[in-house]
Amino acid sequence: IVASGASVRLTSSGLGCRDWPGCSAGAFVPTNGFHSYVEFSNRIISGVAVFLALGTWLVSLLAPAARTRARWLAGAAFVGAAAEAPLGKITVDHNLNPWLVGAHFLLSLTILMFAVLVVLDAWDVRGESVPLPVRQLALLVGLACCALLVTGTLATAAGPHSGSVAVPRIGSFKPAVWLHVRATAAFGISFAVLLGWLAWRRSSHVRTALVVLGLLAAQMAVGEVQYRTKLPWWLVLVHVTLAACVWAAAVTLVALLWRPVVRRGASRMA
Predict the structure, then answer these.
(1) 40, 16 Cβ separation under 8 angstroms
(2) How many CB atoms lie within 10 A of CB 94?
(3) DSSP 20
(4) In this structure, are residues 27 and 230 in contact, taking their beta carbons and an 8 Å threshold?
(5) 42 contact partners, CB below 8 Å, separation of at least 6
(6) For residue 170, which of 101, 253, 89 has the smallest C-alpha distance?
(7) CB 17 within 8 Å of CB 24
(8) Is 21 strand, coil or helix?
(9) SS3 letters for 96-108?
(10) Minimal CA–CA distance to 6: which of 45, 52, 53, 48?
């Protein structure tokens, strides 16, 4: 959803389909060329995600061994995925208001967070126990990553790629980039402290942290290149997709730090 949705915006295909749920009045499937196909493809991908989320939630309700937490997370993922449809319609009806487009994108990342947590719970993925201050630092890292995504969304919304020539921008690009760079620094510093502690203690969590570090380094490199090359749309698409990957990896790291291995005899139904 994140990658296909970004493609819609960056290729100026946001109003390729002006009707809902069909592409146009009297034609459910797209007939208006490239932009309508890009827009409708995103709708199909979103529809598949909704049905997968619904199926996962129903299975969690029917499976006796499913944990209560997993059922709630699966339900939240389904509600979020289902909410994308009416939000998409409202966004189209308001000619791609940039605030609605941003909300549409951030909702996708929220669904991604719930999906990652469902996977960890369904497969009972856990990590070694760490002290409470380290777990609290991990929450700070997660919040900093969230701020990174929000400011990145604002920076993209202020940039030249509007999704349609008639769509207004949100503020000015350079101030938005300035804010985004500061959010990147906050995330980088807090994450560096966490990674340093994990490496010092030779924690098994280092491997997950290194995945986050690798994705973050790639995203920062792409971000620098795209800024210096006047933001080619395909490079912005790579940057946005990497942002989603960084978010998923960061959520995984934070969740594992708060999901220690259960001792024998402890309840596993919570």
Answers:
(1) yes
(2) 12
(3) S
(4) no
(5) 1, 4, 5, 7, 8
(6) 101
(7) yes
(8) coil
(9) CCHHHHHHHHHHH
(10) 45
Q: Which two tokens stand for residue 231?
A: 């933001």
Q: Categorize the per-residue pLDDT at 174 as very low, low, confident or very high, splitting at 50, 70 and 90.
A: confident
**For the purposes of burial, counting CB atoms within 10 Å of the CB of 122, is it exposed (0-12), middle (13-18) or buried (19 or more)?**
middle
Rounded CA gap, 60 and 63, in Å? 5
CA distances from 91 to 53, 60, 149 (A): 22, 32, 20
Rounded to the nearest angstrom, the gap between the alpha carbon of residue 250 and the centroid of all alpha carbons in its chain is 11
Please tell me the number of Cα atoms within 13 Å of 176 on its side-chain side. 18
CA–CA separation, 97 vs 69, rounded Å?
A: 36
Cis link prior to 232 (omega < 30° from 0)?
Answer: no
**pLDDT, tens only, 233-261:** 888 899 889 999 999 999 999 999 999 98
pTM of the model as a whole: 0.88
Determine the distance from the C-alpha atom of residue 74 to the mean position of all C-alpha atoms in its chain, rounded to a whole number: 16
Amino acid identity for residue 100 in this structure: L
